Amino acid sequence: MGFSTFFLSVHSYALCSVISAVPSSFGLVSSNTLLTTLQSTSTTNAGLSCTGSLASLLASNDHLHATITSANSGLTGPSGDIIGYTLYADDSTSYPITRGVAFDFARSSIADALGLIASPTAAKTVPIYIKTIIGSNVAAGVYQETLSVFWSWNYCKDAGLPGICFGRDIGSGSSSLTVSLTVTNDCLITAPNINFGSAPVVSAFSTVNQSINLVCTKGSAYNIGLDDGRHVVAGRRQMISENNYLAYDIFKGAGTTRWGSVASSRRASSEAEINPGNGLGVGSQVFNYNARIYTDQLTPPAGAYLDSIILDVKF
């Protein structure tokens, strides 16, 4: 009695499992940069590991879902401010992940790109990419959110001939993913040059009345200092032309109190002539000043007199 032998090729692949997610951090970002420029980060592991390639992730009844939820709506800081951001399945904006809605990594060739199909021997974890939403005006501090990532999968793990599946891996589980960003204090400064013009004698120079504008981190208390320039003598700033000097100074507001760089000679944010108080994040705080040539000095030789002042802000 004759018989024939028939060999059916069967491939078995290891299973997916929920593991601890790797935290994601944007690092240190200044408040003005956060307000105007998109920030990106990612996690290499959002809580799912699949050892070996999946036999099939393209059939209509296969899926690899991630449902992300949180008690908050973004990164929350110490003052209650919130930084909004968007989650993505890849390092672009093509596949956004909506909170509370299952996203299927088995679709749009994402599983292939991750190597879940093409790499039959190596364990793969699933990354998630994160991008901030431009326009967050927030105070300085550490911002954080903990996301709950619920994973659910159903795919063919034992495949024979094309279209034939001998076993499926079905499972689910949750992992926690922490996202953080630290906002640092910052200021945008507009400080025009001081130009006294020209005059034949020191007594003929006019007073210059101008302003320095600052846009500083929301809620920040700060103070501003002006250093003594490059050629100070006996507490008076001086401009230089070759070996000749012309003494001048800068005074707070419309008064006669010298604006300096130490202790009470500095100006606090609460002293602004326009919008006094802590920083606004958006909108200027204006500090007026007047600059004058000292008239109790001899008129120096004709020339172009120059000096350089450093403005510093301390929080």
Structure in a nutshell:
With 315 residues, this protein is mainly beta.
Q: What can you see in these coordinates?
A:
By secondary structure, this protein is mainly beta. It has two domains: 11-184, Immunoglobulin-like (Sandwich); 187-314, Sandwich (Immunoglobulin-like), CATH 2.60.40. The protein has two helices and 23 strands. The strands form six sheets. Strands 1, 3, 6, 11, 14 and 15 form a six-stranded mixed sheet that branches.
How does CATH name the architecture of the largest domain? Sandwich
Work out the radius of gyration: 33 Å
Structural class by SSE content: mainly beta
Biggest pleated-sheet summary = 6 strands, mixed
- What's the overall geometry? rod-shaped
CATH class of the largest domain equals: Mainly Beta
Number of domain units: 2
Number of helices: 2
Order of helices and strands: EEEHEEEEEEEEHEEEEEEEEEEEE
Can you count the beta strands?
A: 23
Query: What's the mean pLDDT score?
Result: 91
CATH topology title of the largest domain: Immunoglobulin-like
Through-space gap between termini: 96 Å
Helical proportion, percent range: under 10%
Low-confidence stretches: 1-14
Portion in strands: 35-45%
